Amino acid sequence: xxxxxxxxxxxxxxxxxxxxxTEDIFNALALYTPLALISIVVKDTxxxxxxxxxxxxxx
Length: 59
Fold this sequence. Notes:
The protein contains two helices and no strands. By secondary structure, the protein is an all-alpha fold.
């Protein structure tokens, strides 16, 4: 989970840096928002699998 939080933070930082450099924050957001969303989905999927695995081990 720490890895994906790091990826999301890195994506936001990169987006801001590209936006500042190019003076067009909208292009930067269009480039890096999908990466952040994919990271969130992958993190949630892995968390769900972990919870399911824990529930199966308890039974």
